[in-house]
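Work Package 3 (structural annotation) set out to generate three-dimensional models for the target panel prioritized at the project kickoff. During this period the team completed the workflow that converts sequence records into discrete structure tokens, so that structures can be stored uniformly alongside our sequence database. As a representative example, we reproduce one entry of 106 residues exactly as it appears in the project archive.
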Amino acid sequence: MINGNYSIEQTEEFTFQALYTLYLTITPILWGGYVIGKKICKVKIKRFNDDEKLTILKMIIREVVGKYIILATFGISVLVSGLMVILREDKRAIHDFISGTYVNKE
């Protein structure tokens, strides 16, 4: 990236995926439910039942367990999650149900 040589293959590396997952897991805890993209779009991750602060366990379940279940389902869960977001009134996807979270507009 520094030299201007960036390819999609670099995003498939284990190191990139591990760092990105770590970013998505830790940053919302430190920034009150935001990552950079969610802050720009003015949406944030919140706990579903009690609106308390996010915990490391909730975020690990959301990002690691909830999203990597996609690998086990060969992408079927991506389609199901997409349909859930489109069709459900609360716009919660599979990883939101597993972790007990939702994304809320400010």
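The first helix runs from residue 14 to 30.
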